[in-house]
Amino acid sequence: MAAAALRTLTDIPRSIALPAATASLAYLNAKYGLTLDARTIYLLISYARHTAAREKADRVNGFYAFERWATDPQTRDRIFLTTPHDPAAQHPRPQREWTYAEAYEIVGKYARWLREVHGVQKGEIVAMDFTNREGFVWVWFALWSLGAKPAFINSNLRRNAFVHCVRVSTARLLLVDPLIREVLDEETRVELCTADGKGRAVDAFVLEDEDVERDILCGPAYRAPDSERGGDKLKDTAMLIFTSGTTGLPKAAKVHWGKTFAGTYVFPKLLGITAEDRYFTAMPLYHTSASLLGVLQALGPGCTIIVAPKFSPKTYMRMVTETRATVMQYIGEACRYLVVSPKTEWDRTHKLRLAFGNGMRPDVWQPFKDRFNIPDICEFYGATEAPGSSWVYERTGFERGAIGRTGLLVRSLFGSNNVLVRHDHTTDLPYRDPRTNHCIKSLPNEPGELLNLLDPAAISDKFVGYLGNDAAGSSKILRDVFKKGDAYYRTGDLQRLDAEGRWWFLDRVGDTFRWKGENVSTAEVSEALGSHPDVGEANVYGVVLPHHDGRAGCAAVSLVGGKGVEAGLGVELAELARRRLPKYAVPVFLRVVGTELEVTGTMKHQKVGLRNAGVDPGKVAGDKLFWLPPGAEGYVEFGVKEWEGTVERRAKL
Questions:
Q1: 81 vs 4, 137, 447, CA distance in Å?
Q2: Which of 244-253, 408-417, 576-585 has the lowest mean pLDDT?
Q3: Got the DSSP string for 159-195?
Q4: Which sequence ranges form a coiled-coil region, renumbered to this chain (predicted)?
Q5: Tally of CB atoms within 10 A around 534
Q6: pLDDT digits over 235-279, tens only?
Q7: Residue 650: exposure state from Cβ atoms within 10 A (0-12, 13-18, ≥19)
Q8: Residue 370: partners with Cβ closer than 8 Å, 6 or more residues away
Q9: What are phi and psi of 259, to 5 degrees?
Q10: Which residues contact 30 (CB under 8 A, 6 or more apart)?
């Protein structure tokens, strides 16, 4: 009897203790991100080992990742590239597919043509201006196979901006997609073919449809010897990718070989991409997202990359469904355009398990998942030239809207690699303590500019800058941040890190503005207004007004519900803004645009033109202006009379 009692006493605590211990471990894991940190640290260590081995073997060139799958008898017949049928395209084509072996053969033929006809040499930069089609990939990989470096030109650029990018690239050879041959009008061609101040002229060449393609494909393939690709280190330039040019002419960011391994190695493991996946992108290949984190991701597990000719909300989900895609890529406002587009029969007939990208607004996140029944979202934060990045893999809602998460262990071990510092909105520079002249770290949940740690003795190991623009590169480096001699990269992004280790994007430096003595986050205001069902999208910025300090908030909005501001929507938007935002952040003005808001090729809102126009009715042709006077129930029309009242100090704000 005593023994039985003893067994009872020992059994009861065990039956309670085991579930309690499990629950405690689960709580600690959720609170401190233990599993997340373990995975992150493993990825960092394995990435360092993998890239070091590639450099030691003299095989940092991305061509080898492609060649591996194309020459292995067990993988050569896998589908590498698919171009879908897009009925909305200007020149619709049937869906086409190429295996790794077929693509490898074609790349070799392009390499032979580039070498024999155009004399492309090892280390040479070749500018290429292509739309989203298979030719982009053939030329890109052919250049890599020869040891040359491609410069991806934004296919939307014309005249001055186009000539600027080609000149900055230092390329002597420019290859142009025949679908955009108009970029080489007579004036542009003459300007490019005229030697610049350094005696350099450009040999512009349009890939002329069937004739040239036939000559290329009828010839033999050529594989350059390994020595032509040899000698490069991880920090050496692999390609040039141009910035969006939202604040001026685009800059040529030098992308080093080490960064290409983020595509071929890190992100496929992070996303769990396998050989059976079919990765869909409609983003422009000239940008990092679709090239490094799209095409190169397929080379990690040897899966299929599906490249759509362009992004169109009308046909996007149809192409996703018809190509049997399992992973889709987004950037910028793409998901918002999909959410507000009319519903289609393709919305839930797809096989997508994951959406991956960057720039999804918090107010779009859940509506996007709900409408298209996509279980997981991986949001990525980073810039083409930046040495740091973050990501968050969201399934349950805890990370919804965040751009990254780091657990306690990673913050303790690597916290100095990515830090937030207080920002001075007067100078748009990190704030420095007047006593020490050093920056001050932001507290938890306090906004700050994100800085990435650099080795002051070897800046180029992580940040290689911009080709031909040393001043722009130097302006991104901040020194003596926390101690004399240290160095950090300025991201130009204001973020917030909460107590749970989640990173939240707030605004771009320069976009945040001061009004009524307070700092206004344009991203916060855009999110609030964008939550109204009749607002398709909102682009918020500050405008200068005569006789007023700071900038008044203005929201350029596109409407989708058919209800006008005069018909009650002005009151609804005012009520929404007052409910969701601090008083000083409620926009003073609305600019209702007649069409979609202007975006870059990577679907980021353009603000410069809107800011420059301000709210002078004479400069806002075709759009309607409204304002929220003190005491008004809602937004009312703002015309010449109201503008004159502002100029003459009669209007109160």
A1: 70, 9, 43
A2: 244-253
A3: HHHHHHHHHHHT-SEEEE-GGGGGGG-HHHHHHHHS-
A4: none
A5: 17
A6: 999 999 998 766 678 899 999 999 999 999 999 999 999 999 999
A7: exposed
A8: none
A9: -75, -30
A10: 398
CA 592, CA 555: separation in Å to the nearest integer? 8
d(CA 126, CA 240): 10
User: Counting beta carbons within 10 angstroms of the beta carbon of residue 369, is it exposed (0 to 12), middle (13 to 18) or buried (19 or more)?
Assistant: buried
CA distance 398 to 407: 14
The answer to whether 140 and 225 have CB atoms below 8 angstroms apart is: no
Packing angle between helix 134-145 and helix 100-118, nearest 10 degrees? 70
Task: Read off the tokens for 113.
Answer: 């043509």
DSSP 8-class letter at 81: E
Which tokens in the block code for residue 145? Answer: 């196979």
**pTM (2 d.p.):** 0.86
Q: How far, CA to CA in Å, does 185 sit from each of 166, 177, 200, 204?
A: 15, 14, 20, 11
Give first-to-last CA distance, the chain, whole Å: 86
Q: In this structure, what are the phi and psi dihedrals at residue 535, rounded to the nearest 5 degrees?
A: -100, 115
To 5 degrees, how large is the angle CA 26–CA 367–CA 280?
Answer: 90
Residue 454: Cβ within 10 Å count: 24
Q: Are 149 and 237 in contact (CB under 8 A)?
A: yes
Q: pLDDT of 302-358, one tens digit each?
A: 999 999 999 999 999 999 999 999 999 998 789 988 998 999 999 999 999 999 999
